[in-house]
Structure to design on (866 residues):
């Protein structure tokens, strides 16, 4: 058994690594910038009033969060990438530098151009600094040309003293510009570079954080993600547990019955009915039921409306239980019924297989009733493959609970996932991605173990996969 | 068994009918006539619409308010439903039950299935939704089919033991193409930032292929006997690991997260992602099928006749494996349609204002008293998915 678990873990480890890359990569792809979303409000306000102070605050926040570190253990790039030691903390500055470098292929010239422009932008000549700031925001050729004309006009408007003071700077910058235009070297992009960053990188920090249980901070309310997920997980686990009970409680006896009467009218009718049931999208039924049975509009206000119900202070436990049952009945039913078709079909098949085996004939010869054979002999053996399917059901149920939780407004993981996605709260989304991936992998592992446990003949054989 | 065949026949028929409806969607529900005489000349507005989409023609400029609604035509053949799925009929208003007509008595016909939140005709929306659903279902399954065949067929046919080649060859091409792909990603792709998409992709593929060949040649030059030995390529092992990896990724969560993150998700993205996540079923099917077929005597005799392995796979083995794969695919189409409806229902994936079955159902949730918004799109999903499921039912029927 231990060998089996170890063997499976070796297979699952790469999956986990790829999953972590996916989650981290998705996090990086998000258009949102984590630093500015988590910057304290008083510092965000600086943005308009005092850009240099804002830049400094941003830089400090980025350092605090480790956002200034390289992304991965190593980096692959090209010779035209902007130099890393440039003073450009803000994302739009980085974007500008990258665009300029890609356009010209001359990072050295772009770097000095950037520095001179920044000096002009931070200077105290109002007209000039505005134009310089705008030049630092655009890379489009037409707009850059227009802004250059404006810059020259702005220089001419200054008094003669400033003009002479500015002359060398303007000369330098226009020299740089004409050089960039005259000698572009886009071929630099085709010369690859490789750099080794070592373990002090964003991915490493993020991963060690997750491994030590720190899932980050939500963008929306700065609550730790772990705490948010913990609250939601409770509800998802509860309704899924109940749904599994309900699914098996109906499907196993039904499948047994269908199997024992295979080929009869009852069998073909019920089977087709189950296929019909399976084809009805659960979210459709759930939507209709939630609007028909919980609103007075249709005169069928039989169930309390959405949510898990409010518990007034001082309610007895029986009353609490009643409130919860009333609220959870419909969602659990909606979550369970799509599994009926699937599970009872499997149960029917395995019942048929068992019924065809010689030991059943032996049992029949002893003369007990058909019911007793089914209950005592077939059920136990036919149940094994169904139990192993429990693990495979895991992702399906999770998928189902996303919708059911949205429709019935239950504060579970599924609702958290969708609302966080719509609110662009990426730390929560990636954490859910990782947790559900882990759950899926654990489910597959459990399926293997159950399979092995159910069929002793397989014990001790290497790592044969139930999941194949 | 006979019953199943009968059901399948019906399922095929209804799917064919739905497909026809989807193809003719613009001629069935549109806010412009199919053919009309306006200001003395004969026009074909629906065809003109296609030309506009292809960028071949400009919209008619001489229509009052740029729409055909109030245009005084001397002769016009209108579509059965004279409303388009995405243009509002303000004369009727929002959330009007089936059978409503425009209140101000202006131009307009009955909304047989009512209107939605944006005063749009629901029946027209259903027909548009049919096109979206079938498009995504079939498109994503084609992608899944391509991936499934490319990965599952060689894995099953060669298994772990029958594709033999020099170590330097396969290790070299693998390393070379991985390096080539990395280079394309980090250098070639930014370098060609101003090219159009197709040349970019083609040139990248050429680079990857070239690097693969180069890697193979370079490793061949190394005088190390281990590399010169022939060895089997464990294709099946790699394919199974890849399938295992994809199946242990929580697909739905990834779909939601991914479609939430990319900036302008479109139908194509939804198709690509569903196809990219759902090919494993087809690959497994093909693999199992070919593992069986490769041991059949006729394959052996083809080998003895000296045919190339890949030729045998293509011409002799694969054609016999299509049957179960097509069954699995029609089942997959149903699942993809459900997934798309599910995503639009949540408001993730397709642009929010676009019309599909899922988005109509979403409106029903916001307005519980508009029962027509809940019932009809759901029925459409039900019928389509049921037809796919019946077609996908295994003959053995266990």
């Amino acid at each position: 058994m231990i060998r089996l678990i170890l063997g499976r873990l070796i297979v699952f480890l790469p999956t986990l690594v790829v999953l972590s890359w996916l989650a981290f990569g998705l996090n990086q792809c998000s258009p949102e910038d984590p630093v500015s979303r988590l910057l304290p409000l008083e510092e965000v306000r600086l943005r308009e009033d005092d850009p240099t102070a804002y830049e400094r605050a941003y830089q400090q926040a980025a350092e605090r969060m480790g956002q200034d570190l390289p992304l991965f253990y190593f980096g692959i790039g090209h010779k035209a990438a902007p130099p890393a030691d440039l003073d450009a903390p803000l994302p739009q500055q980085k974007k500008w530098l990258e665009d300029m470098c890609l356009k010209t292929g001359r990072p050295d010239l772009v770097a000095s151009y950037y520095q001179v422009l920044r000096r002009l932008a931070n200077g105290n000549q109002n007209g000039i600094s505005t134009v310089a700031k705008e030049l630092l925001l655009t890379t489009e050729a037409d707009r850059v040309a227009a802004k250059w004309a404006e810059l020259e006009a702005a220089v001419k408007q200054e008094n003669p003293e400033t003009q002479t003071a500015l002359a060398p700077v303007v000369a330098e910058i226009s020299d740089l510009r004409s050089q960039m235009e005259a000698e572009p070297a886009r071929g630099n992009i085709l010369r690859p570079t490789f750099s080794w960053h070592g373990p002090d990188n964003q991915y490493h920090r993020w991963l060690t954080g997750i491994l030590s249980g720190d899932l980050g901070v939500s963008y929306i309310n700065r609550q730790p993600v772990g705490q948010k997920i913990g609250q939601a997980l409770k509800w998802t686990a509860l309704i899924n547990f109940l749904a599994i009970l309900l699914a098996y409680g109906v499907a196993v006896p039904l499948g047994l019955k269908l199997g024992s009467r295979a080929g009869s009218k009852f069998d073909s009718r019920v089977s087709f009915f189950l296929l019909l049931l399976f084809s009805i999208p659960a979210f459709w039924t759930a939507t209709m039921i939630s609007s028909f049975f919980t609103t007075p509009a249709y005169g069928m206000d039989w169930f309390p409306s959405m949510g898990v119900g409010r518990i007034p202070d001082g309610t007895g436990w029986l009353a609490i239980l009643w409130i919860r049952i009333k609220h959870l009945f419909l969602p659990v039913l909606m979550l369970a019924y799509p599994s009926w078709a699937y599970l009872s079909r499997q149960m029917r098949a395995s019942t048929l297989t068992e019924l065809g085996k010689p030991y059943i004939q032996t049992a029949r010869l002893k003369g007990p009733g058909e019911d007793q054979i089914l209950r005592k002999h077939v059920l136990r053996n036919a149940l094994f493959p169904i139990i192993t399917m429990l693990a495979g059901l895991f992702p399906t149920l999770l998928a189902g609970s996303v919708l059911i939780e949205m429709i019935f407004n239950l504060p579970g993981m599924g609702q958290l996932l969708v609302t966080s996605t719509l609110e662009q709260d990426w730390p929560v989304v990636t954490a859910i991605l990782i947790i559900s991936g882990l759950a899926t992998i654990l489910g597959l592992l459990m399926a293997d173990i159950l399979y092995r446990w159910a069929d002793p003949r397989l014990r001790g054989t290497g790592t044969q996969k139930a999941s194949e | 068994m006979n019953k199943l065949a009968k059901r399948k026949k019906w399922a095929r028929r209804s799917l064919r009918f739905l497909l026809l409806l989807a193809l003719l969607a613009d001629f069935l529900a549109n806010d412009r006539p199919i053919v009309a005489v306006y200001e003395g000349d004969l026009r074909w507005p629906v065809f003109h619409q296609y030309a506009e989409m292809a960028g071949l023609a400009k919209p008619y400029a001489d229509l009052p308010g740029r729409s055909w609604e109030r245009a005084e035509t001397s002769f016009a053949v209108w579509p059965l439903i004279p409303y388009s799925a995405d243009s509002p009929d303000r004369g009727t208003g929002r959330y009007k039950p089936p059978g409503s007509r425009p209140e101000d008595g202006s131009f307009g016909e009955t909304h047989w299935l009512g209107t939605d939140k944006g005063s749009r005709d629901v029946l027209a929306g259903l027909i548009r939704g049919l096109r979206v659903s079938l498009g995504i279902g079939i498109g994503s399954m084609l992608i899944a089919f391509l991936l499934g065949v490319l990965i599952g067929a060689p894995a099953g046919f060669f298994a772990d033991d029958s594709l033999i080649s020099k170590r330097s060859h396969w290790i070299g091409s693998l390393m070379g193409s991985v390096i080539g792909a990395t280079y394309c990603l980090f250098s070639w792709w930014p370098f060609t930032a101003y090219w159009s998409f197709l040349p970019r992709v083609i040139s990248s593929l050429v680079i990857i292929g070239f690097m693969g060949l180069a890697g193979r040649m370079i490793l061949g030059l190394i005088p190390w006997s281990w590399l010169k030995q022939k060895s089997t390529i464990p294709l099946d092992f790699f394919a199974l690991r890849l399938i295992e990896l994809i199946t242990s990724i929580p697909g739905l969560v990834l779909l939601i997260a991914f479609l939430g993150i990319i900036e302008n998700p479109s139908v194509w993205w939804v198709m690509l992602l569903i196809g990219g996540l759902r090919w494993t079923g087809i690959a497994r099917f093909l693999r199992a099928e070919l593992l069986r077929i490769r041991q059949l005597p006729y394959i052996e005799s083809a080998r003895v006749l000296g045919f190339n392995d890949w030729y045998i796979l293509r011409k002799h083995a694969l054609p016999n494996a299509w049957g179960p794969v097509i069954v699995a695919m029609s089942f997959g189409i149903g699942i993809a349609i459900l997934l798309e409806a599910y995503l639009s229902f949540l408001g993730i994936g397709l642009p929010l204002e676009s019309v599909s079955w899922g988005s109509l159902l979403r409106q029903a949730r916001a307005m519980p008293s508009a029962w027509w918004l809940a019932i009809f799109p759901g029925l459409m999903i039900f019928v389509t998915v049921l037809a796919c499921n019946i077609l996908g039912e295994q003959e053995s029927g266990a």
Notes: Chain A touches chain B through 69 residues (CB under 8 Å). The beta strands of chain A are 74-78, 192-196. The longest strand of chain A covers residues 74-78.
